[in-house]
Amino acid sequence: MAVSPQTTRTQVGIVGGGPAGLLLSHLLSKQGIANVVVELRDHETIKNTHRAGILEQQAVKTLVDSGVDGRVLTDGDEHEGIDLRFNGESHPLNFPDLVDATVTLYAQNQVFVDLAEARKRDGGDVRYESEVTDVVDLQTDTPKIRYRDVSEGADPTVVHEVQCDILVGADGSRSFCRRAVGQAEGHRDFRIEYPFAWFGILTEAPKSAPELIYANSPHGFALISQRSETVQRMYFQCNPSENVEDWSDDRIWSELQRRVDGPDAFQLKTGPIFDKSVLGFRSFVREPMSHGSMFLVGDAAHTVPPTGAKGLNLAFADVTVLFEALDSFYSTGSRELLDGYAETALKRVWKAQSFSYWMTSMLHTRPDADPFETKRALGELENITSTRFGQQYLAESYTGWPHS
Ligand SMILES: Cc1cc2nc3c(=O)[nH]c(=O)nc-3n(C[C@H](O)[C@H](O)[C@H](O)COP(=O)(O)OP(=O)(O)OC[C@H]3O[C@@H](n4cnc5c(N)ncnc54)[C@H](O)[C@@H]3O)c2cc1C
Questions:
Q1: Ligand 1 — pocket residues by CB below 6 A?
Q2: Domains by residue range for the chain, with CATH
Q3: Which residue's CA lies nearest to atom 30 of ligand 1?
Q4: What are 134-186's pLDDT values in tens digits?
Q5: Atom of ligand 1 nearest to the CA of 171
Q6: pLDDT of 25-61, one tens digit each?
Q7: Which of 26, 291, 310, 364 is catalytic?
Q8: Fewer CB within 10 Å: C terminus or N terminus of the chain?
Q9: d(Cα 158, Cα 147) in Å, to the nearest integer?
């Protein structure tokens, strides 16, 4: 292959500038470890993509302690609990009382804005609009990222190359890096699909309740979430093939309302809907999360259903473990922590998989569920909410386990 005319040499090459890739880049730079981030999309597109909203206490601390702008503390909305609603009744859980912890509602696109700004402020090398087309020499000490510049006016036929010591795949659930390894010997994918999806809306409306409501109803699951004082995020369980065009605002509001209806006459606060989407999901883990000199972090290695609000938090936890291993590698020359990265990270990954699967199964109704299964899920919810140990289990998992 012809040598690229534009080759960069760095210590850590990172594919993907989502929250995982940018946080790792930020932490490495603070320790003086050179790195380059190669990101497919432009800054504006990522900034305007609505995804996660709940940050665990540890994720907030990681951002603030590492010197990212403290907007998460001033603009983020600290939440002290959730409301589990079933049989038409509310069951509030108070996290500070149960486990001395809280979570913070702060949209993922704002996390991205803060991290991107920190990289810019500190002179970070983040190459937006750059599509990775190859990752090679992964079993050597000089793996390489090849990419093309897809920005307007650039020549997309020119191949650029980043040579590094360590290559990190932080390129999300459809990960090019993961697929490049394929099913090499010793690699295994674990996955399950769900027979339902989430219909998500953004609406200009006041908050319907002080805390998020997770509702199990005879008509299926609903999540009454929030964005700000004037914009709210809500979801209801739907068929994965649902077409948003078939849903008028009135139809959406009556579907959401009937999923939270109850003897307390609780009423959602409504308003114009300005965004509608259908979100499919699955549970997925790639093992191991490394291959030679390449390490996977975040959604590139695993995805969880959104019910447990774990995806972004798990990505940050991976990054923390990998950062410590890289720091040790560059300061002592020892690969011990790097070699143990996958095993360490996977322990938390499987805990989060278990919690997310459990929340999803308990709160949703399978289209083929028999009456026994429906009643059993209600029994489980009663179990969880009626004992302090049950409430504590949910609260501890939701607010997050320590990072190490
Ligand atoms: C609707 C929704 C709600 C969610 N709610 C929550 C929540 O409340 N709490 C929570 O913790 N998680 C939540 N999640 C999950 C969370 O959004 C993800 O887990 C998180 O984005 C993972 O971050 P990441 O950096 O690993 O991947 P991503 O954010 O997907 O970033 C990967 C980046 O890699 C880039 N990329 C991909 N391919 C290439 C390529 N070939 N070349 C260069 N770059 C490439 C992409 O453009 C992307 O910017 C939610 C997700 C969705 C969809």
A1: 15-21, 38-41, 46, 51-54, 108, 131-132, 170-172, 176, 200, 279, 298-300, 306, 309-313, 315
A2: 6-72+108-192+283-356 (3.50.50.60), 80-102+194-281+365-399 (3.30.9.10)
A3: 172
A4: 999 999 999 999 999 999 999 989 999 999 999 999 999 999 999 999 877 78
A5: 34
A6: 999 999 999 999 999 999 999 999 988 789 999 999 9
A7: 310
A8: N
A9: 9
